[in-house]
Amino acid sequence: MINLTINGKEITAPDGSTILEAARLNGIDIPTLCYDKAVEIYGACGLCVVEAEGIPKLLRSCSAKCTEGMVINTESKRVIQSRKIAMELLMSAHDGDCVAPCQLNCPAHTDCQGYVGMIANGEYGSALKIIKNKIPLPASIGRVCPHPCEKACRRKNVDEPINIARLKAFAADMDLNSDSYIPECKESSGKKVAVIGGGPAGLSAAYYLAVMGHEVAVYDMMDKMGGMLRYGIPQYRLPKDVLDREIAIIEKTGVKLINNAKLGRDFTIESLKAQNDAVIVAVGAWKSSSMRVQGEDLDGVYGGIDFLRAVIQGNAPDTGDRVAVCGGGNTAMDACRTAVRLGAKEVYVIYRRTRNEMPADELEINETEEEGVVYRFLTNPLSFNGENGRVKSITLQIMELGEPDASGRRRPVPVEGMTEEIAVDSVILAIGQKLVQNDVGELTLNDRGNIQADPDFFTTSVEGVFAIGDATNKGASIAIEAIGEADRCAKAVDAYLNGQALDTRVPYISKRDEDTIDYSDRKKAPRINPDVLAPEIRNRSFDEVSLGFTAEQAKKEADRCLECGCREYYRCRLLNVAQRYDIRPERWAGEMPQKYTRDENAFIERNAAKCILCGLCVRSCREVMNINALGLMGRGFTTQPSAAFALPLDQTACNNCGLCVQLCPTGALTEKSALSKQVPLDERYTEERVEIDGQKACVLVSRYDGKVLRVIPNDDISRNANLTREQLFDKINNR
To answer: Which of 188-192, 211-215, 715-719 is the least confident region?
Structure first.
């Protein structure tokens, strides 16, 4: 044994050990992507460099031997800089998606590809668990979400996006109709958290914190929990019994639900803070936005969310036969379709841009037209005209589209001197909603009139009080965004309760250049939408419009997924190392040396574009399995691993042992389902000490057939031995 010092820690290691081996024996991590004890040392990745006192150059720890008294620093400024450059060079030539675009575009970062894949395989329970890792109310959200995930879905470049939202609802419905999944909660922390507001943000935060082991109580001013999911979404889109069943599951995690308790009337933020270790304010935005148009105060002019809430509570106003809805979002769609169901004979949507610029979901727009709603595009209310205090008509300003505004949509501008007037019995203003400021007077508001909350930690002007959702910062948004905030806020609160620092860095991930992706080999398959009630039936009732997917439809639709994200994401060693350093691979941007190509057989899929030339696949195939199915082809930047004679894998000597897949640090080689059911690498062989002809050695023995896979170098093989390693290898296998 020899003595040395690594990072100020005095350690011992066997004489002849490499620095990397000595570090690992003593629990010190040095990153490497090309080293494995099963194969010869290669030193290709350059990540394992360390600095040693008295030696001017950096050493590759995988090959440099330890010496007595050596003093090593594995994390010096010089070492970190060298590793960063090495990682940047590796990542600049790595053409692959760590995460699918759908997941990146979801405000809650739901693993869409993961649960869609599970549904395709008929594993609905597993799909539900993946969803519930991020969304506690999936059956509800799957019905109402405007699905930004689908806007990023690459399947649209082939035909149409995957119906991700409805697949989520399908998996959640399957769960609700069986023994519903309830996550296991951690042991009680002894900490108490109060959540003000029982909407999607508040309920989600409570769910996450309960799973973390905290005692949580939710206070809400309404008769029932659900917030805008209950009081702002019509029954025909989200049946309230579905919402009730999902809330009941949250309650089973131990969350205490307290209704008819209003902030400012029954308690204050300060009073809750005195009784709890932390408070989360998620009060939502319950006030309809004003258009600031003359005549807004007339009878028969209603705010969009006020109108929807009144209908849901059974206090529907008399809207008359002619109803105009102002706005182009999903609230406007809910309002006009509700008016149809209340018996209105003429329903108009007034929108100042064209159909192409409408933010509402395309399916919603189509279904409103089927139900008889008439659109008045390029018009904007100039005044609401009344008689005896009640609205009777609207004067509309004719508009045209000008230059794009900050949202990227062309700005509507008035056409001078052009107006028209339409007769109405009522008007619904569905142009947005905002915070009721009197409710949160204890907190500092921003210049928009919303609660000022830190975008990373969700802290407010009061210590121990956090805020999320529609009441904060930019104001009202979609429910899935509030749920995403709730997830991140729960982590911040948990860290606060435990006195820990919260790492808010955005982890590095690799993304493909969208312009370089070729879809020509993809077969077209039309998007499947669930069946819906016929227009003449649905416009007379509040029954749910969508009939949902059948199992057959869901599996067929899920099968359309292109699986953009890497299947090795959760165990990718390349990504793990990349996230340790603040890398900027774009500094080395250039033409990708390897094209995005696929080669596969029944068990293994190979993609050379993800390869970083670590050589592990080639070396393990040659040195361990003695097969030579893979080799390196080309020179310099054009080098890439290739099957022998550039043949497809299934035409080589490959025996599908899976060793190359297990050693690959990048996902360039991945297992198909049949191979993934085999045992992982560390269970594929055992280490054994053997003695042949008086000579000792350490060997790797296959668990499958007892054959020796490799004699480990640098072990007990005597320099003056009669047998070489190769001869020893043969003798052991023939014993």
So the answer is: 715-719
